[in-house]
Amino acid sequence: MKALGMILGGKRGAMDLLVIAALIFVVFPLGLDIFRLNLVGKYLTFAYCAVGLVMLWGYGGILSLGQGVFFGIGGYCMAMFLKLEASDPISTAHQTTPGIPDFMDWNQVTQLPIFWEPFHSFIFTLLAIVAIPALVAYIIGVSMFKRRVSGVYFSIITQAIAAIVTILVVGQQGFTGGINGITDLKTLHGWNINTDFAKYVLYFVNGVLLLLSIVLSKLVLSTKLGRLLLALRDKEDRVRFSGYDVANFKVFVFCLAAVISAIGGAMFTLQVGFMSPSIIGIVPSIEMVIFAAIGGRMSLVGAIYGALLVNYGKTAFSESFPTLWLFFMGLLFIGVVMVFPDGLSGLYKTHVEPRLRQILRKQGKKTVSSKTSIEKAGA
Amino acid sequence: MDGYSLSDLFSIVVMQGFSGLSLFSVLLLMALGLAIIFGQMGVINMAHGEFMTIGAYTIYLTSKFTESYLPSFMPYYFIAAILASFVIAFGAGYLLEFLLIRHLYKRPLDTLLATWGLSLILQQVFRSAFGAREVSATLPDWLMGSWKPTPSIDIPLNGLFVMAMSILVTGLVGLFLFKSKWGLKVRATTQNRIMAGAVGINTKMVDRVTFAIGCGIAGVAGACFTTIASTGPTSGSLYIVDTFLVVVFGGTASLFGTIASAFSIAQAQSILTFFLTNAMGKVVTLLTIIAILMMRPEGLLRSKVRR
Amino acid sequence: MSLNSSRHGSSAGARKLKQLLVKSVLAGVVANGLFAVTSSQAASHIAVTDKEVVVGQLHSSTGTMAISETGAIEAEQLAISQINAMGGVLGRKIRVIQEDGASDWPTFAEKAKKLLESDHVAAIFGCWTSASRKAVLPVLERDNGLLYYPTFYEGLEQSKNVVYTGQEATQQVFAGLDWVAKTKNAKTFYLIGSDYIWPRTTMKLARKYIETVLHGKIVGEEYAALGSTEFGSTINKIRLKKPDVIYAAVVGGSNVSWFKQLKAAGINGKNQTLLTLSVTEDEAKGIGGENLVGFYSAMKYFESLNTPENKKFVSQFHAKWGANAPIGDVTQAAYEGPWLWKKAVEMAGSFDTDKVVKAEESGTITFQAPEGLIYLEPNHHLKTKLRIGEWEANGQAKIVYTSDYIMPNPYPKGY
């Protein structure tokens, strides 16, 4: 139990986790109708990428601007499985070639491409969601980090890769659904994913997986590897001179971030009901970085708040000012970078926490408030 | 290729060669501004495309102005408008560096986020100011149409113009960087900022002017592209991907890398597009770029600066 | 959540808290499950009072598609304000909730869901690209909403919940090809489009029609990557093949590059017949009329249409949105949406989706639109005419041919 406490980052870390868990599992489901809750679920899928980026960028010092690619791999793998299930010969009977996805038929593809075949299997799909991004990240990571490519140059290359992948996906529409994406997904093993009940279940699964990825990340950070990551972010040469192969650590954390993002992508497909190339390119990849930056790039839990806040802002601004909301978003980004470089978690640490502590200390003497009981429980 | 006469084939080869060169000059002009800012300062300017749009709208406004007030000046306004677009984009870049970028030099990745926010704002500014629809400047007649050296060869005049501008701008940048006193200061600052400061170079001013020049060149590029492409609030975002590819592929630290990269991407794409289809040509080019980047992540020409 | 029982696992407070949490989560799920049931029933309870009915408008006012969708937004708002000035629908004024799809398909789905599930709108006027419609479609079918979709599109679709006020592919393709084959004596065709579903499907129809009905020959078929701005090599290939007709469906920013580069390569209306499916007055404004002179577009509507209804519409549109606002095919089709919805609602005597759909499918709804009398067919598409316009330097098209009425046929046999 003591070890668990250490992993979670002591009393404080555990409390942070508990608060976000309460928010995700109690406050939102109680306070929001299913439409808004489903939206929150969608926002939380982006939080996976932000969590991955906190590990990669905050702790590893490597900024990838191509996380959308991994999000996309996860999302497309899941979408391929669901699409095959939705394209049984009976419901596609009016097509020239029944039994293949509708967009293939529109594009004069007459046979299911070979790389689609394994996605008939759910087990394979689940494995692919984890294995393919890991493999892709490994290849990119090895070829970059072994040659000591880093810093801004690494960022810009990953960005180029995101751009190229988008163009390829959009261009190969007979195999990928092109600009439309893979749409009209219906069931998972016969279970309708579009009912309100399914949306609830998926929301909770999504929340649990997200918190598990944070716990997993904390686990990684609590090992020697975590400390080495921090060390190499600050003084890479010293770590190298101490005899460690720096590139391997970087490759590992890059793969980890990729896998976490891909799980988010798969959950995105399940909750939104389709997969689109518009969320794998440069723009969404940068947005994911912004979630991490706004949450505070060193804070795993902050990443969730960042994703929630920015996406909520986007929804709220665009609902109130459908033609001018880009102004607000732009200002928000610039503002965070210029004024609050450590994001929400920095703000919390410098402004809220000291005051909170004062209040708690005063109140703790008088009565046992609900806050302190949570703190106790968390400890 | 049966059924075509030899002279037909010859004409096509000539025109195809020209179209490759023309694409090369387009890519080079696009990437030059970004390459300077990134290569010399390590700053990624995500609003590069929007600075190109500033140039394009400058052309549009100047053409409207000339049409209503100085109709006799119409054949020549384009040259003046290009100068204007450099000045305006330069000014905007200068201001941007002063307000935003200079606070972020120690955090290069943050500039990326801030300029991204800026690009969102600029797009909305264009939309609010000029409307969401595309606009079209009236181009002088000498720019549109073709030059016919033989009856079966047509060389597009706008392509020639972009090529000339591209050579001119690259030449000026080369002169500026390698022959002028300013260039010496810029290179000194790139190689060793502290030492450069110590020998009395005002590195802050060098940064500001370098950044502004990069933006100004983006403005010129956007202005030139009104002859071959669209002018709208999001036109700049059409170029940004190609621009980044050229810069990354070139290996960011040298002007020659950018030139080599623009040339090889343009030739590959142009030839492949001719023999495959337009979309497939692009796909094969991009896959090749990825493969080469995996083998040579630092781009075609490596930086000689130790980092 | 095992951390509840971590170090002070035995503490009573923690146990209580845990129980509380579990209980409240369960309560939340159950309660919301109930709410959800009532709310999805409420989705068919449309937001309508004795004075007012709410509709949604869902287009991109930001992002790359804002260029095209602005006209549709303006036309729908014009139609709605005119309907309100006439007393509204079933005695209720129409209130519009405008949402921004931001040129992003998941956002379109999200906003459609919001309009239907939170605002309970009676109908949505919106979407432009096929991708956005495909993203919205499952939402419409789940929540039983209504969409009026204004763009000419590829067909292969007929949803109970959508009325397609633009032409489907067969309406736009066949009559135009007939015209060009007859008047220009065209035998060889070069097909070029942007690389996505609409041009691909359209070209598939065109190829079959040219080869089997017109007995012509396709000398080249080519697709340009979306957003591509470089057509030099493609133009050289066309020059080598010397087709009688270039048949084009290039869209977006690529469209401008394509026509500017054609002109610069010396290919113009004087020496080459070009028929395009993707240039309306909106695009002409961005391309520049001088770059289009002599080329032809196949559309159901052109701003220059010389009828009293159209002249009235054009002057009203310009009065509201400025004299320079171009009116393209899609803009006019978007204008038809609210009017057709009004007719269907009045025929049904109710805002209820199922009743409105039944009225739409009756096959008796007609409307005197700017383009002329249109018929809403039971297959949710319009029976309209096709027109060929020849572009002039001022960005307007001269109508050189008008077809008979063409029945919509979204699932053509044999293609």
Outline the structure in words.
The complex is a heterotrimer of chains A (379), B (307) and C (415). With 379 residues, chain A is mostly helical. Chain A has one domain (2-378). Helix content of chain A is 74%, strand content 1%. A two-stranded antiparallel ribbon of chain A has the order 1-2. Mean pLDDT of chain A is 87; it is low at 367-379. Helices cover 72% and strands 1% of the residues of chain B. Chain B has one domain (24-239). In chain B, α1 runs antiparallel to α10, α2 (48-69) crosses α8 (203-225) and α2 (48-69) crosses α9 (235-250). A two-stranded antiparallel ribbon of chain B has the order 1-2. Chain C folds into 2 domains: 52-166 and 307-383, Rossmann fold; 169-299 and 389-402, Rossmann fold (3-Layer(aba) Sandwich), CATH 3.40.50.2300. Chain C has 12 helices and 15 strands. A 7-stranded mixed β-sheet of chain C has the order 7-6-8-9-10-14-15, with helices on both faces. In chain C, α3 packs parallel to α4 (130-143). Chain C is globular, with a radius of gyration of 25 Å. The model of chain C is unreliable at 1-15 and 20-43 (pLDDT under 50). The chains are: A mainly alpha (379), B mainly alpha (307), C alpha/beta (415). The interface between A and C is large, with 60 and 62 residues.
Quaternary organisation of the protein chains = heterotrimer
How helical, in percent, are the residues of chain B? over 70%
Total discrete domains of chain B:
1
- SSE run of chain A: HHHHHHHHEEHHHHHHHHH
What radius of gyration of chain A results from the CA coordinates? 22 Å
Sheet with most strands of chain A: 2 strands, antiparallel
The gross shape of chain A turns out to be globular
Number of domains of chain A: 1
Radius of gyration of chain B: 20 Å
Low-confidence stretches of chain A: 367-379
Alpha plus pi helix count of chain A: 17
Helix content of chain A: over 70%
Shape, per Cα inertia axes of chain B: globular
Mean pLDDT of chain A: 87
How far do the termini of chain B sit from each other?
52 Å
**Spatial order of the strands forming the largest sheet of chain A:** 1-2
- Main sheet attributes: strand count, strand direction, barrel closure of chain B: 2 strands, antiparallel
Number of helices of chain B: 11
